[in-house]
Amino acid sequence: MIVYASNATPMETFTYDNSLCSLSDWSKRHIRDVFEAPTDEQSLRAISETFSEDVDATVNGAPLTREGIQEVVLAMRRSSPRGLKVEWLQAVEASLDTNRGGSFGGVYVIRGIQKTLPGSSRPVEFERHKTVTVK
């Protein structure tokens, strides 16, 4: 961490944290930002900052593009009047070179999704369990 003192005001300082976060911390923060963003626009921005255009993703064994990820996330957000919430159940990191390489695997739950079941007039809350591998 570096602290810079400003010449403009004697007591004013600016703190910059120039250390790299771990792959686990990066992954958890970005997944949270995708699902828990306050607006759809911020969620879409988080998706573009998290997933490359040529992401190798699947849902139930079927390939999914970044645009497909956007559609799935927006659909979940629309079915969540109180917002989505991510809870990480497991996270394992295998570093290669102090935060700059390696892989990460994790399991998380997305809560707050509501669906109306056939024959019911009220929505029921569902949760989605996800696994992720980052290389």
Describe the protein.
With 135 residues, the protein is of the alpha+beta class. The chain is 28% helix and 39% strand. Strands 5-6-7 form a three-stranded antiparallel β-sheet. Strand 3 and strand 4 (62-64) form a beta hairpin. The longest helix has 14 residues, at 23-36.
Shape: elongated
In what order do the strands lie side by side in the largest sheet?
5-6-7
Low-pLDDT residue intervals, each spanning 5 or more residues: 1-16
Nearest-integer average pLDDT? 84
Relative helix content: 25-40%
Q: Specify Rg, calculated over alpha carbons.
A: 19 Å
Task: List the helices and strands in order.
Answer: EEHHEEHEEE
- Oligomeric state of shown chains: single chain
Outline of the structure:
The chain has 135 residues and is of the alpha+beta class. The protein is built from three helices and seven strands.
Helices, strands, pairings?
Elements: E1 2-5, E2 13-16, H1 23-36, H2 40-50, E3 57-59, E4 62-64, H3 66-78, E5 85-95, E6 102-116, E7 123-134
Antiparallel strand pairs: 1-2, 3-4, 5-6, 6-7
Helix pairs in contact: 1-2, 2-3
List keywords for this structure.
single chain; 135 residues; alpha+beta; three-stranded antiparallel beta sheet; two-stranded antiparallel ribbon; disordered N terminus
